[in-house]
Design a protein that fits this description.
- With 701 residues, the chain is α+β, with helices and mostly antiparallel strands.
- The protein contains 13 helices and 35 strands.
- The strands form ten sheets. An eight-stranded parallel barrel has the order 14-15-20-21-22-23-24-25. Strands 1, 2, 3, 4, 7 and 8 form a six-stranded antiparallel beta sheet that branches.
Length: 701
């Protein structure tokens, strides 16, 4: 381009550049016209007339830009950054007359090699840009990277038109989160979609999800990961890094989740999915993994962060080895200013470029460790997320523990902004539901928002309540297996949790016994009914609504097969279960008093009260297995809302009494898990019988 032509203020990538800069080549390197670039714009950015490349390294002594023809293993051009193109620790260069559709790129970084101090620079290695917006080198699912190939990056043309799309901005108390794996959700032929295992395939199921009633999708990792890094074969079956909890690139979507190749427009299919969700009033959250990367420990791959600044990006022992608070070989040094900046840049990018509504942070307690691995009282990274303006409307959800023994449920540094996966809800409610003694008091507290854990006034919606998630049994398997069955994972059934608090109802695994199957169905309904009647944010696992099974595998991280794929044929087989889930979701939406304190009580009743088989029981003893919880409140123009939740975890029928209502009101039975079909019916008087291992929900009319 002419040296006299000014840049526009905003280029096609969305990066704001100065108005009056004239892009005049200043040097020639190996036949390419170049000039110093935009030092504050990390990554590779298309600009009029060329591409801006910016990287940084604290310990490097030199950096080279490598340009490749598409899918070729060796570069057609090597452009060393001149020393005067470096400011501080940042290398930036504009290369003119590059067509982004005609090349891929990587870097080589030179520097000292002193492993005992954490410095492992190696100029022979091709390195992936930490800010790469699209990654190539392993894009077709399950295909081994060709010999000599490696990760490279592409420049992405961000010209997606969002139109006048509004954000759903659903209040936290109104959320119903549905956790799913993008590939496994539609990969099985029973899904009936045209593009199985992809973002497009998921989009084909949005009408189904809207019919079910969920309003937030939590997508298991969709950042670029390489499922072949942990590839094994066990008894002739291929095992992969299926879940994706080993990030290769934090800024790039997983290209193997697309129905078609998106050269230089990577992410458009995902954006189409997110836009379609928002048009249906469904928010989209990403399960993000900032606690470690796919580079592993000393024996792991070396493709990006190790080569740029190993001793900055990772927590290292004094001897230069990797701390492993993640259980996956390494731990990101999240509160180092450089890593802190990268994570914040990443979150802002996904919010502004992909319009993501929230994030669930895997092993989030690691994000609060200092550079020596010790927990911090006020971690700067977590505080920055809580107060960042771009993230102001974004839901932040922490998995408030890590693999290093740090467990922070109820104590996670939150600034009244963070919600938490409530692991105590899962554990206590599972134990109560299967009939363990001494769990009634804990169950009552979990049902009412875990007020013993969270300050109801300040953090009333901090608890994400769940009984199942990707990690562990499905809801069907929770009542079909007493123990895990992970033999197919190849670790002699030693992997996966042993404290499942499950119960097989009388037979291990599938059975034709009608009584056992009836009991299992009721146990599943009990679990979901109480989940939908609990204060806090409910979340459940995709497929639970139609009885999906993993055949007793509680750690299916490597199973890219029907073990993890949803079997949609079960939807028709268990249509009554799906309808029960629909009913309970609608019931929760129709009764705001279940979701929050709306007035501090109603009709002389407090907001929340506990009841035994006789009304107004304040606490429960070790032999109690019946729990009654009443929620009461009133709204202007609506009047009082009073809901009484009765749960009997005992193996015999019990007689109980409801609190006495004002003379103008009566009780109506709205839910009875003894029957798969639900229909409201009046109650004669205040006394009722509740069947063994069942739940009833009453509404005051």
């Amino acid at each position: 381009m002419s040296g006299k032509q000014p840049l526009r203020a905003r280029v096609e990538t969305g990066v704001v550049l100065p108005r009056a800069i004239h892009l005049i080549p200043m040097d020639t390197i190996n036949g390419f016209d170049v000039r110093p670039g935009f030092y504050e714009t990390n990554g590779a950015t298309a600009i009029p007339g060329g591409v801006n490349f910016t990287v940084h390294s604290h310990g490097a002594t030199g950096v080279e830009l490598l340009l490749f023809r598409r899918e070729e293993a060796e570069p057609f051009a090597v452009l060393p950054f001149p020393e005067h193109y470096r400011i501080g620790n940042v290398y930036s260069m504009i290369v003119f007359k590059l067509n982004i559709e005609e090349f891929e790129y990587a870097y080589r970084v030179d520097g000292p090699y002193q492993p005992e101090t954490g410095l492992v620079f190696d100029k022979s290695r091709y390195l992936l840009d930490p800010y790469a917006k699209a990654v190539t080198g392993q894009s077709a699912w399950g295909k081994t990277t060709p010999h000599g190939q490696h990760y490279k990056a592409r420049v992405v043309k961000d010209d997606f038109d969002w139109g006048k799309l509004d954000q759903p901005l659903i209040p936290t108390e109104d959320l119903i989160i549905y956790e799913l794996h993008v590939r496994g959700f539609t990969k099985d032929a029973s899904s009936g979609v045209a593009y199985p295992g992809t973002f497009a395939g998921l989009m084909e199921k949005l009408d189904y999800l809207q019919e079910l009633g969920v309003n937030a999708l939590e997508l298991m990792p969709i950042f670029e990961f390489d499922e072949m890094l942990d590839y094994r074969e066990v008894n002739g079956r291929a095992l992969y890094n299926y879940w994706g909890y080993s990030t290769v690139s934090f800024f790039a979507p997983n290209t193997s989740y697309t129905a078609s190749t998106e050269y230089n427009r990577e992410g458009n299919e995902l954006k189409n999915l997110i836009r379609a969700c928002k048009r249906r009033g469904i928010e989209v959250y990403l399960d993000v993994v900032f606690n470690h990367t796919a580079e592993g420990n000393e024996m792991g791959p070396f493709f990006s962060f190790k080569g740029f600044d190993n001793n900055i990006y990772y927590l290292l022992t004094p001897e230069g080895y990797y701390y492993n608070f993640s259980g996956c070989g390494n731990t990101l040094n999240c509160n180092h200013p450089i890593v802190h900046q990268m994570i914040m840049d990443c979150l802002r990018y996904w919010v502004t470029t992909y319009r993501v509504d929230g994030f669930r942070f895997d092993l989030a307690s690691i994000l609060g460790r200092d550079e020596h691995g010790a927990p911090m009282v006020s971690p700067p990274l977590l505080q920055a997320m809580a107060f960042d303006p771009i993230l102001g409307d974004v839901k932040l959800i922490a998995e408030a523990w890590d693999a290093g023994g740090l467990y922070q449920v109820g104590t996670f540094p939150a600034w009244n902004r963070w919600a938490e996966w409530n692991g105590r809800y899962r554990d206590d409610m599972r134990r109560y539901l299967k009939g363990d003694g001494g769990m009634a008091q804990a169950a009552a507290l979990r049902l009412t928002g875990s007020r013993d854990i969270y300050d109801a006034a300040a953090r009333g919606n901090a608890s994400v309540n769940f009984l199942t998630c990707h990690d562990g049994f499905t809801l069907h398997d929770l009542y079909a297996y007493n123990r895990k069955h992970n033999e197919a994972n190849g670790w002699n059934n030693t992997d996966g949790a042993n404290d499942n608090n499950s119960w097989n109802c009388g037979a291990e695994g599938e059975t034709d016994d009608p009584q056992i199957n009836a009991l299992r169905g009721r146990m599943v309904r009990n679990a979901f009914a109480l989940l939908m009647c609990s204060r806090g944010i409910p979340m459940f696992l995709a497929g639970d609504e139609f009885g999906n099974t993993q055949f007793g595998n509680n750690n299916a991280y490597c199973q890219d097969n029907i073990t993890s794929w949803l079997d949609w044929s079960l939807l028709e087989q268990n249509r009554d279960l799906f309808q029960f889930f629909q009913y309970m979701i609608r019931f929760r939406k129709d009764h705001r008093v279940l979701r929050r304190d709306i007035s501090g009580g109603a009709c002389g009743f407090p907001d929340v009260s506990f009841h035994g088989t006789a009304p107004w029981q304040e606490s429960f003893g070790p032999q109690d297995r019946y729990v009654g919880v009443m929620f009461a409140g009133a709204e202007r123009n609506v009047g009082p809302q009073i809901v009484y939740v009765a749960s009997n975890a005992y193996w015999e029928e019990l007689s109980a009494a409801l609190p006495q209502l004002p003379a103008s009101m009566h009780w109506e039975l709205a839910v009875d898990t003894w029957d798969a079909q639900q229909h409201a019916r009046p109650v004669d008087g205040n006394c009722f019988a509740i069947g063994p291992r069942s739940v009833k929900v009453f509404v005051a009319k």
